[in-house]
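Running low. Invent one:
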Amino acid sequence: MKLRTQLLSGFLLVILFMVGLAGISYRAFISYSESSKMISHTYEVIGQAHLIEKLLSDMETGQRGFLLAGQETFLQPYTNAVNIYKSTYSGLRGLVSDNPVQIKRLEVIAELVQDWQTDAADPEISEKRKVSKGVINARKLQDILTEGLGKSILDEMRLVMDSMIERYEQDNNLFGELLTERIAKAMVDLETGQRGFLITGKDVFLEPYYFGRTQLAMHFKAIREMVGNVPNPERITGDLDELDRLSKEWLSVAGDPEIEVRRQIDAGNKSFDDLQTMLIQGKGKITLDRMREVIDRLEVAFNNSKNQKARNLVTQLAKGIVDQETGQRGFMLTGEDDFLTPFRGGQVLFQSSMDALLRLRGNVYDSKTMASDIEQLEQLSRSWDKDAAVPEIAIRRQMNLSTTSNEKIVTLIREGIGKKFMDKLRAQLKAFIEEEEGLLLEREAKAQALTKVGVSKGPLLAGTMIGIVIIGIMTMLFITHRVERLVGGEPTEIALIAERVASGDLNIEFDSEESTSGILLSVQRMVESLKINQQKAETLEWLNSGINRLDEKMRGQLNVSEMTQNVLTELATTLNAHLGTFYLVDSDARESTLTLQSSYAYTQRKNLSNRYQFGEGLVGQVALEKEPIIIRNVPADYLLVSSGLGESVPKSILVTPLVYEGEVTGVIELAWLGQTNEEQLTLMERVAPSIAINIEAAKSRESLAKAAKAI
């Protein structure tokens, strides 16, 4: 199905759906309104039930507070909750008057509240009021608690810990924050266990107290070790400065110079032997090894001090160094600038990580001050234990031995009468609330379903339908036109083109008569760009391959004759030349003379010798000017190329000088039956300096050999 048809069909279905929706909205309006009222009513019932739940909690809290303190003021929450409960219960009963199940639950709740007051709360309160106000141990304990010695020590400890945590946050030391918070947690356990024992007198409540003691000693030991391992800021700063200096040194002695040599090789000004010489010197490796030593020191220092953020930044520094080295090595191997992307990205990553580490060291806490705070914190914890916790626990143990009417209260509480009533009350309230919440879910689901139906009627419904149809059609046409413009063609055709491109097939022809736009136009441009890039890559690969093969032919201890013949044969084969000659400067002649040294498919020259003076003929003129000459309109009687099919006149001739240290050492002449292209000329231009160097090397070897024989 065409895209246009699919879009039109989709919009038409949407319009039909909206018309139907408007048609049923009115019928859902009344049901929706009634459902909304029921939802509001249910929320009110649940709110009142939660209020009763809170009031029961206030009653129990007030009663327990009075049993602990023995002061009438602690009964205030109990008294207030009892008064509010009565009116709240009556109102809630009226709200659920149409629900017999909920009415029954409320009646059970009322009976349980009454039984709890009669059998538990009131008897325990009455017995507490009989307790003597002059019990010596209880008064002594109360006096100690009133003095607030333990509280003042704990408050001072909190201030010290807050200061420590703030400094750890500035240093981004999460482990330090964690240890400090664990010390605070251990102190909470100590206080919780001690307070639990003071309230109940039972040794089981001292378990958190003894556990907190053990944890406190362990955490103090750990935090002292961590602070003791904090690296010296001056030493870290020195390492960072050295690392920054070594990075710049590597760039200046190895990174940038080696890249420049590789560019000179591509330009034909230097050879791979020059690059190999630089690499053998190992200046870059020495600097990189020293940088890795500094990185290792930094990693050990931050690992010992548990500074994870600093460790991560050191890792980023190491990655930046590796990226620079990887990108530089990739460029030296290939000569492609794309391989320098990691090199440049590594420089940015290295510098940003270095800046972040320097900022981080600026926020580091002073280890001596932190050690002093830890010592103060330990002293305060020992003081709290010795001067507050231990004396108060001892007095509470003496109270356990006294025989007062508190024993009767404890007996009543231990019988668990009040707890049993409260457990039943909570169960009934939970069932009551769950029933209402279930009704709420049903009513909300119904209301949600109704909201999907329209709520207009009469003329409003008709106007809505007409407006929907008109707007829908206009929108449909507009969007369809816009989508077609944006896509530019059938999505299936575009997808097929994308699949061919993904598989490497770029032989795609586009209809030039049709005007393209949108995605199709972008795809067309992408294909053309890929074709151009592919052609460039193939050309570059051909050039590099030809250069490498010629280098192979020139290696070894070759004499001049072997060297020139190898070079000429390889050039003619690589460049598809049909004829070639190689002239060398005759060093024994009085005047500058070029003599034919080697040839390829050479059989005849019209009235021309095999020796030329500088400036004589094409060969001599090239030697004189030191610039190559290409002729694309060769005279019919100038030169013939012979083959098994006969003789032909070449269409183009390229004459190239070989220059070594500013002096011409030879001339190469190549001829083609067809026209030359730019790639062939480029290859010849790149290899000419290398050929000149190797010819001079062969000449030097022959001269040395002759001198050795003469001796």
About this structure: The radius of gyration is 49 Å. Residues 3-69 form the longest helix (67 residues). The first strand starts at residue 579 and ends at 585. Strands lie at 579-585, 593-600, 611-613, 629-631, 641-643, 646-648, 652-660, 663-672.
